[in-house]
Amino acid sequence: MIECCANSITSALIGIKAGANRIELCADLKNGGITPKYSDIEKLRNLTNINLHVLILPIANKFIYSKEDLKKIIKDIEFCKKIGVEGVVIGAINEDRSIDITKTKKMVDVARPMKVTFHRAFDTCLDLENNLEDIIKTGCDYLLTSGQYSDVNKGLKNIAQLIKISKKRITILAGGGVNHKNIHELYEAGVRQFHLSGTKTDKFGKSETHFHLIKQAVNSFNEIKKSN
Question: CATH number of the domain at 2-227, out of 3.20.20.70, 3.20.20.380, 3.30.70.20, 3.40.50.1580?
Answer without folding.
Answer: 3.20.20.380
